[in-house]
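Q: Focus on the chain.
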Amino acid sequence: MSDTQASEWQQRITGEWYGLPSVFDAEGNHTGFNKVSRASVFADGKVTYWMQCNFMNTGPLRNRFEVKDFEFGVDDRGNDRIYQGPDFYGAGHPYGSLVDSHYYAPGWRADLNTMNQILPDGVTQVYSSLLYEGPTIFSVFNGVYLNAHDYDTNPDTKVWIDAHIESERELAAWPHTVPDRTGGTWSGDCEVFGADQQRRGSVSVRLRHDPIDLVRTTHTLEFSGAIDYSHSYIRTRSHGNRYTYDGPDLWGNAIAYGRALYTSQHHVSEAFKVKGREFIIDRDYTLAVAWKLYSGDRMTDIVFGPLTFTPDA
């Protein structure tokens, strides 16, 4: 970014984003909402990020999040967005239309890993934050934002945004469960970026879903394009919001916080693993995926995009 031109990511997120992220405790219980208005503003060669939060939350987390209005400077003249305080310190790492951030919030005494994924329509953003004390998660925020520039002046925009907020309220505690009696396929084109934050191209993704019983299903994941591979595994909902992946190709586990599932999968015979977030956006099971691919403990690529579910006839 120069002193007169905003960075590519800054241009993507101009305007105000409206959402109603859900708040979960460490076990995945829905405890309320965080009604947020936020914007990242580029002016006079500088970026300032502001957030106005209204926590509608119950239980022990309520007092923790009483500090709720934030502002911080951002330096994104290089490949990263450096958060310079006073309310957040750390960095965000853009990969095209996705930013993966790791930073600290003094007001919340929280170390956060936040992922903001803008979908191809340019106005929908899938958001999640994992909040840590050391290595331990104590809370999770997630939800879907929409971008608008004229909410206060355009009645049609106000109706659209207000309807979205109400939909998010209704879907807030909907668990990340896949169809248990109906087979089908998730498919779509996803972006591929290397660990160096450079675009490598795109992949055609096909995730085949074949239920075995009410808690188990066979999944076959196929990539073709910038990356080519095919893996199969049995996905089991072991209890509540916990999942396991039980071979034959990938083994691992996952935990869901509402519609967002956080996964870790390891290959049976290679130094290869996948860590990711799979977010069910709507009741049609549209899936916003973000998968980090690793060779050993080194991330090689990140694959992300929306997948559409087509049930078997």
User: Anything to note?
Assistant: The chain has three helices and 21 strands. The radius of gyration is 19 Å. The chain has two domains: 8-171, 184-311.
